[in-house]
Design a protein that fits this description.
This protein is α+β, with helices and mostly antiparallel strands and 401 residues long. The chain is 31% helix and 22% strand. It has two domains: 205 residues, UDP-n-acetylglucosamine1-carboxyvinyl-transferase, Chain (Alpha-beta prism); 177 residues, Alpha-beta prism (UDP-n-acetylglucosamine1-carboxyvinyl-transferase, Chain). It has 13 helices and 20 strands. The strands form six sheets. The chain has a four-stranded mixed sheet with strand order 2-3-1-11. Strands 7-8-10-9 form a four-stranded mixed sheet, covered by helices on one side. It has a four-stranded mixed sheet with strand order 15-16-18-17. Helix 1 runs parallel beside helix 7 and helix 8 packs parallel to helix 12. The radius of gyration is 21 Å and the shape is elongated. 51% of the residues are buried. It binds ligand EPZ. Ligand EPZ binds next to helix 1, helix 5, helix 6 and helix 12.
C-alpha cells in the first residue's frame, strides 16, 4: 500500500490556511516535505498535530506572517502559502521557494495570474510582497499548464464573491484531489481534471476530514523496481489510471501487468526490451517525475532509447552517477540516449535530487556487488522507509547513519 501522494498532500496542507475550523487529514505520510510544510503552517499560527497517523489542523488563529527564506527554501510548495494567505487575508509576504534543483523553477506564471486577479505584487531582496485588497475574479490563461500555478490560483480564488476561470490549467490527479478537498469544505470549483477550471467564490469554508489519493510516483517507482530485478510485485493504494502511461511503457518493455481497482500486479520478463522513446509531458502524458526511474530501467533493457525531458531543464543530474555503475547514456541538453547493457556494477554514488536519487537505489537493486547511495536526504523528501519497504520485497539493503 503506497503512501498518500506528496504532491496532493502539500497543496492540501496549504489549503487548510483558508479554513477557520478543524481539518483532519488521514494517512499523513512521514515525507520530509510534508513535515516541513507543517512547520510552515505552525509559523503561520495554525495548530498542527499528528494523531494516530492523521494530521489534525486548526486554522482559527492563522495569521499572514512573513514566510522567511530559511523556511520558504525548505520546499517548493512553500509558494502555495501565498495563494492561500491571499485567499483568506488578502495580503502575504513570502520568500522565494526552494525545491529540487531540477531547473530554474520560476514562479512567473503564479505571479502573472495573481496580478490578473488584481493582486498588487512587488518583489525585492528575494521576497514577494502582495496586497490583494482589490482581489477580483476574472479569466486567467496560463502560458503553460503549470501544476503549482494552477494550485496557487485556485487557493487565491476560493474565498470571495467573484467567479474565476483558469484556462490551460494543469490536469494532474493531484489538482483534482485538491479541488475535491476544497469542495468537501464548501468551495465551488468545477472542471478539475480538464484544461478549464471555474471557481465560484464562497464566504467561508467548513472543517472536514479527508484522505488524499495514493502516490502514483511511488507506485510507479516500485513497479519499475520489480521490472529491473526480474521480479514479481503487487502495488496497491493508487488508481492505476493515474499512471497509465507508465503501464503502457512497462508492457512494451515485456512486463506482464494486471490492474484491478487500486491494485496492480507486475511480472518482469527474463529479457527487458527498450521502450525506444520517452517524452515527458503534462498529465496524462508520461510524467517527468517517473523519467529518471524509467530511464534507469532502459540502461539494462535490450536496444536503444531516446529520452526527451520536456518539463524541466535539468533533470538528468543522476545520469553521471548511473554511468559510474556502467550505464551507457549520452546526454545533450534535454535529450538522453540510452544503450542497454547486460548489467550494472555497484559503485559509490550521490543523490542530487528526489527522483534521481530514488533511481540510484533502483539501479543498486539490479547492479552486481554493493552500491552506496549517499545524500539520501534528497530521497526522504518524497519517500519514507524506502529501505524497509524494499527489504520486505526481498532487497538486500541497509541504511548507514
Ligand atoms: C509540481 O512542481 C510537482 N511538485 C513536481 O514534482 C512535478 O515534477 C511538477 O509539478 C510537474 O508535474 C509539487 O507538486 C510539490 P510546474 P511545480 O509548475 O509546480 C515551468 C517531485 O519530484 N514554470 O508544473 O514546480 C517550470 O520551470 C516534484 O515530486 C514556469 O516557467 O511544476 C517547469 O519547467 C518535482 N513558470 C514547468 O513549468 C512558473 O511560474 C513545470 O512546472 C511555473 C512553472
Amino acid at each position: 500500500m503506497v503512501e498518500c501522494a506528496k504532491n496532493a498532500y502539500l497543496p492540501i496542507l496549504a489549503a487548510t490556511i483558508l479554513c477557520e475550523e478543524q481539518v483532519i487529514l488521514n494517512r499523513a505520510p512521514e515525507f520530509a516535505d510534508v513535515n516541513n510544510m507543517c512547520v510552515i503552517l505552525e509559523k503561520l499560527g495554525l495548530k498542527v498535530k499528528r494523531q494516530g497517523g492523521a494530521l489534525v489542523i486548526d486554522g482559527a488563529n492563522a495569521t499572514p506572517r512573513f514566510v522567511p527564506v530559511d523556511t520558504a527554501k525548505l520546499l517548493r510548495s512553500s509558494i502555495f502559502t501565498l495563494g492561500a494567505m491571499l485567499g483568506r487575508f488578502r495580503r502575504a509576504r513570502v520568500a522565494y521557494p526552494g525545491g529540487c534543483d531540477i531547473g530554474l523553477r520560476p514562479i512567473d506564471l503564479h505571479l502573472k495570474g495573481l496580478r490578473d486577479l488584481g493582486v498588487k505584487i512587488t518583489e525585492s531582496h528575494g521576497v514577494i510582497n502582495c496586497d490583494a485588497t482589490e482581489l477580483h475574479g476574472g479569466t486567467i490563461a496560463l502560458d503553460f499548464a503549470s501544476v503549482g500555478a494552477t494550485e496557487n490560483l485556485i487557493l487565491a480564488s476560493v474565498l470571495g464573491k467573484d467567479r474565476t476561470v483558469i484556462i490551460n490549467c494543469a490536469r494532474e490527479p493531484e489538482i483534482v484531489d485538491l479541488c475535491n478537498f476544497l469542495n468537501k469544505m464548501g468551495a465551488r470549483i468545477y472542471g478539475a481534471g480538464t484544461g478549464r477550471i471555474e471557481i465560484e467564490g464562497v464566504a467561508r469554508l467548513n472543517g472536514t476530514e479527508y484522505t488524499p489519493i495514493g502516490d502514483r510516483i511511488i507506485a510507479g517507482t516500485y513497479l519499475i523496481a520489480g521490472a529491473l530485478t526480474h521480479g514479481k510485485i503487487e502495488v496497491s493504494g493508487c488508481n492505476s489510471i493515474f499512471f497509465a502511461s507508465l503501464i503502457d511503457k512497462l508492457r512494451y518493455s515485456g512486463c506482464f501487468l494486471r490492474a484491478k481497482g487500486d491494485k496492480i500486479y507486475l511480472k518482469s520478463p527474463k529479457t527487458l526490451k527498450s521502450v525506444g522513446l520517452i517524452e515527458t509531458q503534462v498529465y496524462p502524458g508520461f510524467p517527468t517525475d517517473l523519467q529518471a526511474q524509467l530511464l534507469t530501467l532502459q540502461t539494462v533493457s535490450k536496444g536503444c532509447c531516446v529520452v526527451h525531458e520536456n518539463i524541466f531543464e535539468s533533470r538528468f543530474k543522476f545520469v553521471p552517477e548511473l554511468i559510474k555503475m556502467g550505464a551507457n547514456v549520452k546526454v545533450r541538453d534535454c535529450t538522453a540516449v540510452v544503450e542497454g547493457v547486460a548489467d550494472l556494477s555497484g559503485a559509490e554514488v550521490y543523490a542530487k535530487d528526489l527522483r534521481g536519487g530514488a533511481s540510484l537505489v533502483l539501479a543498486g537493486l539490479r547492479a552486481k556487488g554493493y552500491t552506496t547511495v549517499n545524500d539520501i536526504y534528497h530521497i526522504e523528501r518524497g519517500y519514507c522507509n524506502l529501505d524497509k519497504r524494499l527489504i520486505e520485497l526481498g532487497a538486500q539493503i541497509r541504511r548507514e547513519e
